[in-house]
Design a protein that fits this description.
Structural class: alpha/beta
Strand order of the largest sheet: 4-5-6-7-8-9-10-11
CATH topology of the largest domain: TIM Barrel
Helix content: 25-40%
Strand content: 15-25%
Largest sheet: 8 strands, parallel, barrel
Number of domains: 2
Length: about 325
């Protein structure tokens, strides 16, 4: 039976779909071969770096549409309210603009010796799971937490993310607290259909071994991994390649104008190849962490990533 390939190149994983062509004397199976690339989105953090005046999320959504992106990751601390009208308004606007809301990036810290403190962070995470469900968002960014012995986050960055345990405790204690806290959140995540996406975001997830230790403690589809390209400062490509098979979401850092804390010269063609090798299908979420104004930096970041992933600006 005659057959042929119609090739559409979008420069990622290959799908083959059969199309049946009928005629008077034969039926030919025609295969459509499509190479897919990850969807490209942006975190609203890219528009607001924790300055006193928050950049409205409505504006962020409209700018994402102007950049011809596929979706938006909402930074929880950037929300002006959790009231129903505000939440439903965001969801309606995203739908009207043709944008997915694919992740809610939240802050919590499970590394506390005090059980009551950990319980507060568990309660916050549960509330954010419910909020993501209300927004129609399928995943939240999860932090492991950190000791805090290095001081402020600025001081942690000055120490390149390295800090020591509190006196009288070890990292084993911290991992146990973190794992127990995540376990307390998983039933709600499954109930609401929201994936907990653990990010390599300093603290216990400073290195690939810490990420794996937490993830390997569970056997559930409701805990996954958020791969941040800019949070492994030493030998980043080895770490990214090691953890890429686990990723459900990717943060793509950019540093136009120089980074708020540091600047990495990331090779996104190399990173795209790493993700392509593991057939990554999810979102690549831009986090513009440079000092340049988002209005000029983000178009450059979008062009850089599109070129890296599919060869087109």
């Amino acid at each position: 039976m005659p057959s042929r390939f119609i090739v559409v190149s979008l420069a990622h994983s290959v799908l083959r779909w059969p199309i049946i062509a009928t005629g008077c004397t034969m039926a030919a199976a025609v295969w459509l071969e499509v190479t897919m690339r990850p969807r490209l989105g942006v975190s609203t953090y890219s528009f607001w770096h924790f300055t006193p005046e928050k950049t409205p999320l409505d504006d962020c959504l409209r700018w994402a549409r102007e950049l011809d992106l596929d979706g938006v990751e909402i930074l929880h601390q950037q929300m002006l309210s959790e009231d129903r009208d505000y939440v439903q308004g965001l969801k309606r606007l995203a739908f009207t603009l043709g944008l997915d809301l694919y992740a809610l990036s939240i802050h919590q810290d499970f590394v506390w010796p005090d059980a009551e403190q950990r319980a507060e962070h568990v309660a916050h995470t549960l509330r954010c799971i419910d909020l993501a469900h209300e927004l129609g968002i399928p995943a939240i960014r999860l932090n492991s937490g950190r000791w805090g012995t290095s001081g402020t986050f600025d001081e942690l960055m000055a120490a390149r993310g390295i800090e020591t345990p509190l006196p009288g405790y070890t990292d084993d204690d911290a991992f146990r607290w973190c794992i127990d806290s995540i376990e307390a959140c998983l039933p709600r995540a499954e109930e609401q259909g929201v994936v907990l996406a653990l990010e390599n975001h300093w603290g216990l997830t400073f290195a690939p071994e810490g990420v794996a230790r937490i993830l390997d403690s569970f056997d559930t589809p409701w805990l996954s991994f958020l791969l941040d390209t800019g949070n492994f400062l030493d030998e980043p490509y080895d770490a990214l390649a090691e953890l890429a098979p686990r990723a459900c979401l990717v943060h793509a850092k950019s540093y136009y104008g120089g980074g708020e804390w540091y600047t990495l010269d990331l090779d996104y063609r190399r990173i795209a190849a790493i993700l392509r090798a593991v057939d990554y299908q999810g979102y690549v979420s831009i986090e513009m962490e440079g000092r340049e104004c988002a209005s000029t930096a983000l178009p450059k970041a979008v062009a850089e990533l599109r070129t890296a992933f599919d060869g087109s600006p």
